[in-house]
Design a protein that fits this description.
The structure is a homotetramer. By secondary structure, chain A is α/β, with parallel strands linked by helices. Chain A contains 13 helices and 14 strands. Chain A has a six-stranded parallel β-sheet, sandwiched between helices. A six-stranded mixed β-sheet of chain A has the order 8-9-10-7-11-12. In chain A, a hairpin with a 2-residue loop joins strand 11 and strand 12. In chain A, helix 1 crosses helix 12. Chains in contact: A-B, A-C, A-D, B-C, B-D, C-D. At the A-C interface, strand 14 of A face strand 14 of C. Strand 12 of chain A pairs antiparallel with strand 13 of chain B, so a sheet runs across the interface.
């Protein structure tokens, strides 16, 4: 039985609490949030105690922490929890600064504690299935990875301002997915981008439409495209072209009803909300974390994975700025 | 908060307990099973007490019972629970005898307690979506309903012998679905059938492959086909042809990965296990039951629906026997 | 080089002429039609001569005739052409009377001439592919055949009156397909039907919505459903459930564009017109006829196939009338 | 009636001859080929005369020429035919040198003759349908175009050497498609590429796997990826993400049969051969040319379109060489 403390009771903390509820060998012992009502609500649902983050980190009756607080608090919490010997499940991004992620990685390594970076999409049954088939050689050597990733609608402008920009906030998931599927580190990043969805986003110094090309030392290629808007739902598609075949994962629709009329054959839009779209992924992610910690195996993706994705996002931002290909 | 007692802690009782765990306004208070280990296991998972069925039915701290015991015990449990004023969620079939279902219906009506017959498929998001669109007039008047329903593999012969036969055991779900979608009562049933999957099933006096044609007074038609075997998973498809269009629900596959090679484009088999295939349906069914009881509205499908499906299954069996169309 | 005379220059005669134009080893030498302008138009397109039907049948420079005239003229043309030693490609139905088809079959057999009954759907690449895979054992023994067949819209009432009724006019294609795919003769036919599309069709003594169940001696089952109206195009689907798997052919859409918006993912309607939907089938049918005649092998489907489909249609009509299952 | 001379009786000349055979208002009057047997074969099939290219260009009984000869002969034939007042249908690429295409464009403009550059894919019913819907505003402003284009297998090495390289030989189709769908000229081209399919291609100085990013002045983005090999057929997919929705065209499969077994649901590979895949496109292209010439409207794509696609291919090649984004 893994005893868990949840740091941050917002939307993502609640998702992880629900996942834990469905596991037989894990339990939420305590929750913490700077906003008391949020902590109270989650405590009521889980039957857990309310404590401060510091108390949770220091507690003897807690084995692991789930960090779902704002990004700028991650650094201190990781340093504290690692030093206290807690296993750590940390939401992405670990930090906005690659240097600070390196610092965390050192602390985590020194402490020898398990650490999982919350790139939940790796646990999506379809994407995980694609990766497994690549590893088993089903399509031979990977040659071209194509990732189409579009949000249903842009976040509020206030969020954009502090988000670190599209590459660090949104595309970072796709950059991690690219590493996951290319099975080789990208050595070059080229980015283009524009503000086509909302010119205010452009005025805020960010883009809402972007495309990145990654290349690896052996010549593998990955193309990613992002948009902050998709009228037909949360568009999340991946495909991998290999020497012996193609693997692809289509969107997941809201339901499987098809309507045929004079206008043609119509199916539902894609699942619109990320929690619903990745519900199975979040559950599998937590199951993996709990299994790994209980069995003494290192969970994945590691903090190193968190760092490398951040470096790719930084490189993409630099490429967009300079209009040149960049080495990450 | 609806306080529930679970009668029968086998596979289906566990499913319902899991559904209740995901609802905020319902709780399993007590569980009962003739086999103590089964009751103990479910009690441990839910935190509920172990009691006898009689004690649950008589208890003041219980509002509703979920009946998931063997079919031949349903009658007495329904009579007892109804008289005790409990809301009742009863697995299908209510009873193997239509006359005894009528008896139960009288008791339930006299007691004025809410009653839900467990035709879970009505709550499948896709099938429910089809019914809703029919009701909203999206395809005009219903004309032809087609139901293709095939189990992954036949049950053990020992089960076949006491199952009541394919029409009452397996097709009864499709017969209920036909009533749900035709929006008009069938007035004629014609059945054909044979033992193509396993000749032992034929020797046991049953069929494993069957087709039924239903017709309504206004001339609507429903075709159902069943097989006790499908190599490609649990095959569950429905379509409705109406005056203004077609509605259909395709199979749900194990994942959404597609592999393309020289052999073509291949997707996963259909979800193979009924609990997995109808997981969302079971949850929605329990949510509906709890909502209905708490809000004082009658849950659906009713005990009358249970009776009418049974009468259609009886008619199908009679039609197969006589090789004649039969009035239910 | 097969020298062909076309008898009947209406829509179907033109289709066959176009098919022949695409074959290198066949040529239209002469055309005939009771309506001179029709003959002239086709002669102009093909470069063929205009002759009378009798002259074509008697001609030394003609090897084969394609009969696409009204059904009631088939009998005499077949008798004449067979006696004259011509290979015969005759549109379905061979005749409305099974007895007269038997007469034709005798004449054809006595004359030893090749004869093809124009059940074009057997040559649809997808349906032919299904039959080939069944024959090769890809899905093991056939158990259940499901045929969904719906016309875009009903023919004029005037046509209905002289059509022989839905079973002989429309479902006969599906009855032939059932024989093609069941690989065993049906021994029982049960039909239901109603006039849901247009009550005038009912008043004319016909149905526009119908379902038939066929069973074979070994217990194989076929379900067919027909409607005279489908808002979403010409609906032509077939599937075969076997001991080791399922084969199915989906509708062919007008194009392969998909549009995604807030309303969902929409593809085009099904190809609406039978000539367009079965264009490839008509070409393959003529290629088969020409190949068979030139190589001295009997073309398929035979006149016997034409007879058996007609007997099934007759049985379906009798079943509808008597509301009893009928032996064909 | 448009009287046409075919220059070049190889594979593509034969395709165009077959298209013309299906048109009522066009006719092949004469054919020419440096290899007499090729000319004889096509003359036999079409009933056309054999002449020299010069004779065809000079002939009074010919209105238009179809140029399907080797690329290095196009220049002289275009100069000659334009000066002789013939309408010109010229296979792509017009020439390997952008400067020489400019020369041809001047001659064509001066002569005032109709000119079509043979980018056949614009006439594919699905791709043309996408462009039409964009023009009609169905998805709002275009934002991201994604083109996935993979050949079944690489051409012989001998061909590669004289092909002009992947960008000019293969991707030029996709570059034209990008212009067709972006509805705005690309102002920047960035290319990456490698030899993953066959290292010999790399040694020959070319790539077999490549990706290009195009951007327009207003910030629209197009991503193209190419491979010289696809085990699952000729992979030709396009999608356009716009402000109000998504348009996409899936691959066309060899047939529409689906097989379901324990291995899952399998459909046929993609049509493997470009003539089969684009059969409808070739026919529509010729129909457009004939209609345009007969009605006095300029056919499309123009020689200017041919030039601009070539400039994009040149830019892509330069970008690959320099590893920098390039202005076309």
């Amino acid at each position: 039985m893994l005893k868990i403390g949840i740091l941050g009771c917002g939307r993502i903390g609640q998702v992880h609490a629900r996942s834990i509820r469905n596991l037989d060998d894990a339990r939420v012992v305590a929750v913490a949030d700077a906003m008391l009502p949020a902590a109270e609500a989650l405590a009521a649902k889980t039957g857990a105690e309310i404590r401060t983050a510091d108390a949770i980190i220091a507690a003897d009756d807690i084995d692991a922490v789930v960090i779902g607080t704002p990004t700028d608090t991650h650094f201190d919490l990781i340093q504290g929890a690692a030093t206290a010997g807690k296993a750590i499940f940390c939401e992405k991004p670990v930090d906005m600064s690659a240097d600070r992620i390196r610092d965390c990685a050192s602390t985590v390594a020194a402490a020898g504690v398990p650490f999982l970076t919350g790139f939940n999409r790796r646990f999506d049954p379809s994407f995980a299935g694609i990766e497994a088939r690549i590893r088993e050689g089903e399509i031979g050597e990977v040659e071209i990875v194509t990732i189409l990733s579009r949000d249903p609608s842009p976040p509020p402008l206030s969020y954009i301002a502090s988000s670190g920009g599209l590459f660090r906030d949104m595309m970072i998931h796709d950059l991690d997915m690219a590493r996951f599927l290319l099975a080789e580190e990208p050595v070059q990043v080229f980015a283009v981008g524009s503000a086509l969805v909302d010119s205010e986003i452009g005025r805020a110094g960010d883009v809402d439409t972007a495309a990145v090309t990654l290349t690896t030392a052996s010549g593998r290629i990955c193309q990613i495209s992002n948009s902050r808007r998709a009228t037909y739902g949360y568009d999340q598609r991946i495909e991998v072209h290999g020497a012996r075949g193609l693997l692809r994962a289509e969107n997941q629709l809201e339901n499987s009803v098809e309507v045929a009329t004079g206008a043609g054959f119509r199916r539902a839009p894609a699942r619109n909300f990320f929690l619903e779209r990745y519900e199975a992924a979040y559950l599998a992610e937590m199951r993996h974390f709990v299994d790994a910690v209980l069995s003494g195996k290192p969970p994945r993706p590691s903090i190193e994975d968190g760092l490398r994705a951040q470096l790719l996002a930084d490189a993409a931002a630099r490429s967009l700025e300079t209009d040149l290909p960049v080495r990450p």
